[in-house]
Model the fold of this input.
Amino acid sequence: MNTHPKQLLVIIAEAALEKSLIRDARAFGANGYTIADVRGGGERGERSASWEADRSIEMKVVCDAAVADKLAVHVLAQYAPHYAVAMFTTDVGVFRPQKF
Done:
């Protein structure tokens, strides 16, 4: 089956950024996204989601590489200096490119 190349950008961040990240993803040209509540730990400590300010989200955006790059640069500049943010990308193949 033929797939079409896209980029998967994964942003793991403090839940307080959710609305801003959604707005930014749309503004930079993403057609959609998926967000889930997540827990974990890292250099800024543990996030167990036991209270509202301790929640983290994982946002997944499948898009063109240029959109992923612009969004990632923006998130690193705008939010990473002040919030717990981790990001990574990977190449993916999609079956319905018009969705992304």
The longest strand covers residues 4-14. The mean pLDDT is 91. The CA atoms of residues 15 and 56 lie 5 Å apart.
